[in-house]
Amino acid sequence: MRNKQWGLGLFSLLVYLFLLGPLLIISITSFEPGTVLKFPPDGFSLHWYRHIFEVQMFPKTFTTSIIISLLGNILSLLLGIPAAYALNRFSFKGKDLLNAAFLSPVLIPGIVLGFTMLKYLLVTYHLPLYAGLLVGHTVIMLPFIIRVVGSSLSSFDFAIEEAALSLGAGPLKTFFKVVLPNIRSGIIAAVLIAFLESFNNVDISLFMTGPGVSTLPIQMLTYVENYFDPTIAAISVLLMVLTGILMFGIEKLMGLSYFTKR
Amino acid sequence: MKKTYLYWLLLPGLLFLSVFMIIPIVLTIGSTFFQAERFTLSGYVDYFKDPYFLKILLTTLEVSVAATLLSILLGLPVAYYISQKAPRRKGVLLALAIFPLLTSPVVRSFSWMIILGRKGLINNLLVDIGLIDKPLTILYTPVAMMIGMLHLFLPMMIISLVGVLENIDGDLMTAAQSLGASRAKAFFKIVFPLAMPGLIIGGILVFVGSLTAYTTPALLGGKQRVISTFLYQNAMTLNDWYSASIIATIMIVITFVVVGLMNKWANKLNPKG
Lengths: 262, 273
What we know:
The structure holds two protein chains of two kinds. By secondary structure, chain A is mainly α.
């Protein structure tokens, strides 16, 4: 049996090379000392890493991205946790429909969402750019919060909640003292996943940025249009380190099996 | 507990989505049927008569279909390989597939610019070994976009297939083989049909993802337009919001039709749900 697997193993190795090779190549080119990106690089230098911090727009847009993702996370937790609780705690008519409605932002093409939001949030409702960006990101984070928090609520034993209630705790107290601590790791995992979703977002941000307000991915796209130096490669390495750290967190909190369940 | 809580818990989220997402979308779709305050379908008629638009639509569909088929071809064997592994090994292989998925699409598309460019890795390699004299044009073609899309969405195909393949009882394969089926025959008669729901879900994710992705065609497509970059161009460069709204509506319709049909198909194959 074992020796028959080698063909499959080799095939899988090649596919993994296809998936991870480009990320390795971009990492290696980030150490190029010259001004033109090439592989293999002509030497080893950290020049372009320093350059990221010298070009003001990168630290600035990085900060914007972080703030938008954090505020968006807070907003989507405030909106999403009660909804996820209601959808998992009670059975009622129209539950499937409501569930689908809450997950629908994932179904609408991002570029369409971005455009319609530009048209109505900024132009019709006159939201400031920053607020529009925040609202847009909250909309796309909400389904992830509801799905991940929902999945940890579905494995929570509501009999414990009933016990607390019957012992005289109020519903709010029960929620904060009994339910919330039990789904804490699910909530943190949801925050990490939603954070990555927002932080990497291009489609919505594309329409919600303008003079003075931009996010890191949009700034990177603009930069690539004008320059082909190793700066973006160096930023990519830093972003991959960040991704790796957050992924490690998700794995510790809920396991990566979340991704294989649909 | 009282049911009235229910509505108060759902209301904030629903209100938020309605005001900031559903109403803008409905109004955008609605606006495409009116020109100079009068109901008309002429916007759509013009678009579907325009050869430039049809070419963009065709390129988009070609790239998406190719990426989907290739993701099945590459993803199925890998997912099968992963699902056969012991938990520890499986965890590592899954993590390696999920990592690119969580990495920024800008980073991933940019890495292919380094590989496929005129002075990129592939061209340099081919010139060095003397296979070609002049660098090939790979970047800024539909092929480059397709490679980028495949790289973007193949992990989704792999992980949705692993999810399904994990639940297939390994004894079924052993049983089929002990009854005389070859390994390949056992795979196609037993594993493949059982993997079908995962294949369809993975297919939806790759196809719809490729159909609507912006970053990859923007970076790897050059002047080659796909429907999402065309929408952006109309909205932001040409400031033609009427056209952009029509394209947006067409994208929503295509997405919903594809997802609806595929879901229906998946349910048919899997009556237990």
